[in-house]
Automatic annotation (TrEMBL):
Protein name in UniProt: Signal recognition particle protein
Annotated region (Disordered), positions in chain: 377-405
GO CC field: signal recognition particle
Lineage: Bacteria, Bacillati, Cyanobacteriota, Cyanophyceae, Spirulinales
CDD domains assigned: SRP_G (cd18539)
Assigned protein family: Belongs to the GTP-binding SRP family. SRP54 subfamily.
Pfam families assigned: SRP54, SRP54_N, SRP_SPB
Function: Involved in targeting and insertion of nascent membrane proteins into the cytoplasmic membrane. Binds to the hydrophobic signal sequence of the ribosome-nascent chain (RNC) as it emerges from the ribosomes. The SRP-RNC complex is then targeted to the cytoplasmic membrane where it interacts with the SRP receptor FtsY.
Predominant location category: cytoplasm
Entry keywords, A to Z: Cytoplasm, GTP-binding, Hydrolase, Nucleotide-binding, Ribonucleoprotein, RNA-binding, Signal recognition particle
Gene: ffh
Length: 439
């Protein structure tokens, strides 16, 4: 399958444009990959449609192979849909925080209860685990055994008690003892059934949990979507735990759970041991769903090339004096992420000689400049001459950005002068610079 995906990318590779026509094959393969990863069909359809729109509308970046650009769009969309990394557990303002575990039988609720307790304990948060599964003979013992192993107390009332009552009293005990977090383990059924849902709803109503976590076995496949929908509609979940990700499942359930409930996957279970709990990393699962171990590398490479192409384009604009306020703003925002103004200007040929007090006026100056550019119209940004010629335009920009007309004048003059200088340096051909330029 990964090979077919490769083939589809390869076909795209020869193209110089991403178009509706030439991505159809690639889209088909994405669809196939998602279905093979057990993502629910409806979810797949919506996803592929979204990717098609984004890919078709995407500006083709010169210097970046269309297949790379496409794979990045697919990957980014997957990551986007799957949401936050490491969404935290709820923390009540007034402890105890109450976490309710929900899910079908055998998905790993009891194991996950202990895993969470251990995780919280490592953060110095005290826990109480509450055993409400009174149906399976060994269920209470299972939790007690796990509790001993991780040294976390278990609240239980035997198997004759009422689960709602157990939950209520468990929480009461935690409150009394000043325990930080109560995790209520519940009984599951093999299939969704009205009794189980009814009981869960009653427990939820009785203890008012801060987090209701749906535990989903990653091997569940297509059914994960229905399961999530039912639990979310009937109980209301606030997050999910995806278990058994140490198996060979591709993790498509993650996409289904997230896109159907809109709630984050908070943790991933990766083994039977109590330590086998990991935060959820959407980018890792995205690669796994696409079924290519090296997708991430590909995506990184695409990003690099996109950055390079962007830089090359910017440089060409500078040399041809097509550099406008939009480009300037873009560069400024980059600077903000990167550090100093001087540092980036040094990347422009010849600018290393110009760095210094004149160009580096600090954060305040940057902010003012950005505010002024933000107050310009699209045309003004593209054509700074409009501002140079029109005092009313300058006054409007000044008003909009809380500066004086004089400041706007100065910005435009400086900008025009800088652009002229850049152009001259470009044409003058700085000695020894020619060979080192990308593109
Ligand atoms: P519950 O019925 O939902 O409470 O499920 P359990 O916690 O009893 O787990 C059912 C089985 O799945 C047990 O054998 C667990 O050891 C196993 N299990 C739970 N989580 C994981 C996991 O992340 N990976 C693997 N490989 N097995 C798990
Ligand atoms: Mg259990």
């Amino acid at each position: 399958l990964a090979e077919r995906l490769e083939d589809a990318w390869k076909k795209l590779r020869g193209q110089d444009k991403i178009s509706q026509a030439n991505i159809q094959d690639a889209l088909k393969e994405v669809r196939r990959a998602l279905l093979a990863a057990d993502v629910n069909l409806q979810v797949v359809k919506a996803f592929v449609k979204e990717v098609e729109t984004k890919a078709t509308g995407a500006e083709v970046i010169s210097g970046v192979r269309p297949d790379q650009q496409f794979i990045k769009i697919v990957h980014d969309e997957l990551v986007d849909v799957m949401g936050e990394t490491n969404a935290p557990l709820a923390e009540a303002d007034n402890p105890p925080t109450i976490i309710l575990m929900a899910g079908l039988q055998g998905t790993g609720k009891t194991t996950a209860t202990a895993k969470l307790a251990l995780f919280l304990q490592k953060q110095k948060r005290s826990c109480l685990m509450v055993a409400t599964d009174v149906y399976r003979p060994a269920a209470i013992d299972q939790l007690i055994t796990l509790g001993k192993q991780i040294k976390v107390p278990v609240f239980e009332m035997g198997s004759d008690a009422n689960p709602v009552e157990i939950a209520r009293q468990g929480v009461a005990q935690a409150t009394e003892q000043g325990i930080d977090t109560v995790i209520v383990d519940t009984a599951g059924r093999l299939q969704i059934d009205a009794d189980m849902m009814g009981e869960l709803a009653q427990i939820k109503k009785a203890v008012q949990p801060h987090d209701t976590l749906l535990v989903v076995d990653a091997m569940t496949g297509q059914e994960a979507a229905n399961l999530t929908r039912t639990f979310h509609e009937e109980i209301g979940i606030t997050g999910a735990i995806l278990t058994k990700m140490d198996g060979d499942s591709r993790g498509g359930a993650a996409l289904s759970v997230r896109s159907i409930s809109g709630k984050p996957i908070k943790f991933v279970g990766v083994g039977e041991k109590v330590e086998a709990l990991q935060p959820f990393y959407p980018d890792r699962i995205a690669s796994r769903i696409l079924g290519m171990g090296d997708v991430l590398t590909l995506v990184e490479k695409a990003q690099e090339e996109i950055d390079m192409a962007d830089a090359a384009q910017m440089q060409a604009k500078i040399l041809e004096a097509r550099f406008d306020f939009n480009d300037f703003l873009k560069q400024m925002r980059l600077l903000k992420n990167m550090g100093s103004l001087g540092g980036v200007l040094k990347l422009i040929p010849g600018m290393n000689k110009l760095s210094g007090a004149d160009l580096e006026k600090g954060e305040v100056e940057l902010k003012r400049t950005e505010a002024m550019i933000n107050s310009m119209t699209k045309q003004e940004r593209e054509n700074p001459d409009l501002l140079a010629k029109s005092p009313p335009r300058r006054r409007r920009v000044a008003n909009g950005s809380g500066r004086l007309e004089r400041d706007v004048s100065e910005l435009v003059t400086k900008f025009t002068r800088m652009r002229g200088m850049m152009k001259q340096m470009g044409q003058g051909g700085m000695p020894g610079m020619g060979g080192g330029m990308p593109g």
